[in-house]
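User: quick one - fold this with zinc ion bound?
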Amino acid sequence: MPKSKITKSLKIHTLIAEFGSDVFCTDGTVLFCNICSVKVNHEKKYYIQQHIKSEKHIKGLQIKKNKTQMIAPFVEKNVFYADITKMMIACGIPLYKLKSVEFKSFFEKYVQESLPDESTLRKNYVKDCYESVLQKIRLEIGESPIFVSIDETTDKAGRSVTNVIVGPLRESGRGYLLTVEVLDKDSNVKKCWYL
Ligand SMILES: [Zn+2]
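Assistant: Sure. Structure tokens for the protein plus zinc ion:
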């Protein structure tokens, strides 16, 4: 690529970094506004500043923002709810125990906290715990080659289950239980797990 083209592309990318890659994009030669679907003159920063102040652009941004809010309503997280979810999962306490009168009254008496419903935790907090554990596993494994162990066994209820364990392929590496799948005895369905 000629030097002038590289310089131009670099200049546009610098402007995108400044004004937001969710708003602008480029093919390396022109600056394009994703909100208004138009090319924007990038010769001077002033033109971009003018563009983002334009009525069309501001309206477009508002519509985009409203759409995003409709898709994913913001849930303000309660620290106590987040911590109790983490504690119960880590200690192997089933979340349905939150329905137990004794469990609830213990917390209300000694911790002065009202316990949330099981459904609230399942809907808004369990996924965060799952993501945080997956993130820890990813960090531990890093760029290392991995081992995957798939071990079929029978659980307490007599169901046929498969434990999927993954870990870094090095001497000090430990294995992490990635998932437990209950297998249907009557079918020969092969399952896949995506890491
Ligand atoms: Zn625009």
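One thing worth noting: The pocket of zinc ion is lined by residues 33, 35-36, 51, 57, 60 (CB under 6 Å).
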